[in-house]
Write a structure and sequence with these properties.
- The radius of gyration is 22 Å and the shape is elongated.
- Strand 1 and strand 2 form a beta hairpin.
- It has 2 domains: about 140 residues, no CATH class; about 150 residues, no CATH class.
- Helix 7 packs antiparallel against helix 10 and helix 9 packs across helix 10.
- The chain contains 11 helices and 12 strands.
- It is an alpha+beta fold and about 325 residues long.
- The strands form 3 sheets. A 5-stranded mixed β-sheet has the order 3-9-8-5-6. It has a 4-stranded antiparallel β-sheet with strand order 2-1-4-7, with no helix packed on it.
Length: about 325
């Protein structure tokens, strides 16, 4: 099933008030604790072990009224719950229910053993999207939803670990990606930043890291532990360096201070985490990233022990 990507601010449809209201009470229950829609930060150890369920906060009667107001037949709409991995970019339909059918589950338990393992066993966390979705083309009136995959209402939950530096794992850098970004043959890696990072709650939504396809496949097969660790460490340093430099530049261009960012800002969490890990004041770290890039990179290399890992690799050969 495809859910169309749409802006949550500009929605050129009428009759969606009831659908949006139907999702306003949705809560994600994690180990017995309820969380409202939005970001949920858990201890690293809890990410893969937590018991999770969705309390939809709605019922069939409310969902059917939402369909009626939107001009959508009950048989042409489904309530769906979709899980998406942050690291592996995989997705899985956890639950789906056609609105014309009976026996809607108001509480949806997520069986993490049965569901797609690349979604719910992701150390960097996962996203859950609950939505009322149009499943077939609708003979609608002007300004009513028409295309399959369009959602009438939705709730989004992002579950991530406190150590949020693991969500930039690489995707394969192949010929298509090189052509897309105008990269030369033989390019080893590339970090694509496609959003203003200061405005993002989750930096993973604006940063995509790519690593040469053959190198990435070798890492995944883990043919040599020392090689794998050295490459992963070097790539992590490069990725964090690029993101840190971008955040510092955006702050300067916007004439903003780090402390002015909202508490939910992914950029703020990122800088504070690096500051904590490197034991350097956050503002001093940003100033270094602007004025002395080499020193900023050396700080990250020191934190990750890159020299020791490369030495181990060379000695092993």
């Amino acid at each position: 099933m495809i859910i169309r990507s749409e802006s949550r601010i500009v929605r050129p449809f009428i009759g969606l008030e009831n659908a949006e209201k139907a999702f306003s009470a949705a809560k994600l229950t994690v180990d017995g604790k309820d969380y409202d829609e939005g970001s949920i930060v858990l201890p690293d150890s809890q990410i893969k072990s937590a018991t999770i369920s969705l309390n939809t906060g709605t019922n069939l009667e409310e969902l059917r009224k939402a369909c009626d107001l939107a001009g959508v037949p009950h048989k042409s709409a489904k309530y769906v719950l979709i899980g998406r991995s942050r690291m592996f970019r995989k997705s899985s339909i956890v639950y789906e229910h056609t609105i014309s059918n009976k026996n809607f589950d108001s509480v949806i338990d997520i069986d993490r053993l049965e569901e797609e393992r690349f979604v719910f066993n992701d150390n960097s966390g996962f996203n859950l999207i609950a939505a009322l979705v149009l499943t077939e083309e609708n003979s609608s009136k002007p300004l009513q939803v028409k295309n399959p995959g369009t959602w009438l209402g939705s709730a989004h939950f992002s579950v991530r670990p406190q150590n949020d530096l693991s969500s930039f794992s690489p995707l394969p850098l192949d010929k298509n990606i090189r052509d897309k970004f105008g990269l030369r043959t033989g390019t080893y890696s590339y970090i694509d930043i496609n959003e203003d990072l200061l405005e993002l709650e989750d930096l993973g939504d604006g940063v995509v890291a790519y690593l040469d396809e053959d190198v990435l496949n070798l890492l995944l097969t883990d043919e040599s532990e020392s090689v794998s660790i050295a490459i992963q460490t070097q790539f992590a340093v490069q990725t964090l360096f690029t993101i840190g430099k971008q955040i510092s530049q955006e702050l300067v261009l916007a004439n903003r201070e780090l402390q002015e960012l909202s508490s939910g800002s992914g950029a703020l969490r990122f800088v504070m985490r690096i500051s904590e890990e490197c034991k350097i004041d956050a503002n001093d770290l940003l100033e270094i990233a602007i004025k002395n890039e080499s020193k900023f990179q050396s700080i990250l290399e020191s934190r990750f022990g890159l020299a020791a890992k490369v030495q181990k690799l060379l000695k092993g050969n």
